[in-house]
Design goal:
Strand content: 15-25%
Number of domains: 1
Number of strands: 3
Radius of gyration: 20 Å
CATH topology: GMP Synthetase, Chain A, domain 3
Number of helices: 4
Strand order of the largest sheet: 1-2-3
CATH class: Alpha Beta
Largest sheet: 3 strands, mixed
CATH architecture: 2-Layer Sandwich
Structural class: alpha+beta
Length: about 110
């Protein structure tokens, strides 16, 4: 009998039995993903509290990675403004236990659509 491999993650594998939602939600990978998403939401809320008002709506956390935050801004002009307050922002973020290792920002320009 030949083994069939399911290679396309976008197509359902109809040979597997359906799984109860409770089992899927107990998956450690899914839990880690949900935890990371919750942390990013919290970082974005913190950024809204800690950043100068002119930066609000232009800065967003994209990832928390080891010793730096990956931040997106919607134009290069906001990179300069964010760099001006980077040291003070990192010091304020380091107060929070899950951000205590952040030492730098990686800033990427991602223009808003529309």
């Amino acid at each position: 009998m030949k083994t069939q491999y399911h290679l396309n993650p976008l197509e359902p594998n109809l040979q597997q039995d359906p799984q109860p939602i409770s089992k899927l939600l107990c998956n450690q990978t899914l839990q880690a993903l949900v935890h990371k998403a919750q942390q990013m939401i919290e970082v974005n809320e913190l950024l809204n509290e800690l950043l100068p008002s002119q930066l609000l709506g232009h800065v967003r956390c994209m990832n928390i990675d080891a010793d730096h935050l990956v931040i997106s801004v919607d134009s290069a002009a906001w990179v300069t403004r964010l760099r001006c307050c980077e040291v003070a922002l990192i010091a304020k973020l380091n107060i929070y236990p899950f951000l205590k290792n952040v030492q730098s920002l990686k800033i990427k320009v991602r223009p808003k659509n529309g």
